[in-house]
TrEMBL record:
Gene3D superfamilies: PPM-type phosphatase domain (3.60.40.10). The keyword Metal-binding applies. Residues 2-242 form the PPM-type phosphatase domain. It comes from the Bacteria. Its EC number is 3.1.3.16. It comes from Cytobacillus oceanisediminis. This is protein-serine/threonine phosphatase. The lineage of its organism: Bacteria, Bacillati, Bacillota, Bacilli, Bacillales.
Amino acid sequence: MRAVFMTDRGKVRQHNEDNGGIFMNSSGQRLAIVADGMGGHRAGDVASEMTLTSLKEFWEQSDEIQTAEQAEDWLRKHIDQVNKILFEHSKENAECEGMGTTIVAAICTDRFSTIANIGDSRCYILNELGFQQLTEDHSLVNELVRSGQITKEDAEHHPRKNVLLRALGTESSVEMDIKTITFEESDLLLLCSDGLSNKVTVSEMDEILKSARNLEEKATVLIEQANHNGGEDNITLVIVEFYDGSESG
């Protein structure tokens, strides 16, 4: 398995409130995370940083994940723990009141990947069936699209596009979506914040990921494209590729 993490402040924001990374447990299995923080007085970067630090610590102390059920349980249990940590911190520190973060996280083994998400950071997969989004945004506009009140095109320019219905750390408990997929040779996972998905079209992502570039180059070109298309938000992504271990590189 190969993986790359990249983040960029973008062209407009003064600070980068996104966080992310790729971490290994004792068995060499990877946990990929993207978190997009929100809250005034830079509390957003506190929320996303605390999320990343806590999950990294939990993961590095974890044993090998052998089944999808174990992976789903691990994500549910530890994301719940992080939610409580953030919520308590925001109550005890006035400058962090109301802070929260999105999260999309993927446990990647050599047989499957298990993905959890809260908010509007996304996970996509590129495999033999094509390029598709695996996660559902927990946002007001996505609910309006799902209920048929507006079209996907309307959603692109909706004035309340940034309103989230779920976030990590803003309530004492939170619901998350979790799903497991088979992960096969040459498949790619893309985890990203909305700074990428709002600025780079699905067809552009598909084209860049299918190109002959290496993973670092693909990540760089995706961020360059988001900045070229406006770069109004922080841009963060992780790409994970499963390949045959007998290959060179």
